[in-house]
Amino acid sequence: MPELRKDPIVGRWVIIAHERAKRPDDFRSTPSASNEPKVCPFCEGHEELTPPEILAYRDFGSRPNGPGWRLRVVPNRFPALKIEGNLNKRGDGIYDMMAGIGAHEVIIESPRHEISMATLPEDNIREVLWVYRDRLVDLKKDNRLVYGMLFKNVREGGGASLEHTHSQLIVTPIVPISVWEEMTGSLEFYNYRGRCIYCDMNQQELAVEKRVVLDSTHFTAFCPYASRFPFETWIVPKNHASHFENIPKPGVDDLGHVLHQVLNKLELALDNPSYNYIIHTAPFDQPELPHYHWHIEVIPRLTRIAGFEWGSGFYINPVPPEHAAAFLREIEVNAPSPIYAGPHRPASARTPAERGRA
After folding, report:
1. pLDDT > 90 in the chain, percent
2. Which residue among 220, 233, 296, 353 sits deepest, i.e. has the most Cβ atoms within 10 Å of its Cβ?
3. Residues that constitute the known binding site for Zn(2+)
4. Which of the residues 104, 166, 280, 295 is marked catalytic?
5. HSE on the CB side for 292, CA within 13 Å?
6. Active-site residue 166, yes or no?
7. 75-84 per-position pLDDT tens digit
8. Domains defined along the chain, listed by start
9. Around Cβ 165, how many Cβ atoms within 10 Å?
10. Which segments are annotated as binding site?
11. What is the pTM of this model?
12. Which residues contact 6 (CB under 8 A, 6 or more apart)?
């Protein structure tokens, strides 16, 4: 059984997941010695290689755990947290701990062996967003669980252990410290100004336009003013909403288009980089919050986090967000696009030919 242990100095919770040490390295960036292709457990027809599905969007008449699906949700075979059991909160001397209760699910986004979500049709991406919503709505009924984080790891540098396009949901009995810091900071702003900081950011970015990547009916995509990473892009709803799971159908329809565009722009501009995206939303046990605003953070993995960043909490970003946004705005998704050649371009943003000459 995993454990949750609390750092008594900063209040950060850590998952001690004993069984994940047994997780195999499924990702292969080079061919195996036998040169035989590895069987992908996420492809249609290999359903027996995954745990039984929790939810699937299927063709009429198809049977569970068999072919005929468009999206599947399955338990992670090597979960960071487990759904069975009691929290058993307790002390260990000066320390606090509890059982590693939660949920860890995998959303398989296509029956085909697609490596990039950007290659999926927009309707497919909209169904992925509906699956996200459906799973949060279901899991928030469990009063042991407090927070659901949806995230996607893309390619080896982004932490993906399988290349078939998929995302994950981890639901925890506590609020992660990064989300807690966002909620605390936004509450301080609200108490001082009487407004939501995310709503104000949206309005200012649209007014100055320098960092806007995409402006749609319901969402603004922009490179944040204090971007931690090159080409970091946030997608923020224009209408105030604190909980992602309350997104209406027009929002899902528009978000499918925006997410498709943003991911394609990043992949075209940066030569198919590794990246992560994370949906930050309000905790299950909170009502609609006037000070907090759900949003998506898309983070290309172009630079490495090293000693200074770990030790100080500072980030060093060699690409100003104004330059990044200006370049991404010019990328046309369905047309040939240049590889980013701006100042301080990291090696991972060079073309394959350039990397071969380095």
Report:
1. 78
2. 233
3. 40, 43, 113, 164
4. 166
5. 20
6. yes
7. 999 899 999 9
8. 40-77+102-358 (3.30.428.10)
9. 24
10. 40, 43, 113, 164
11. 0.89
12. 12, 13, 14, 95, 96, 97
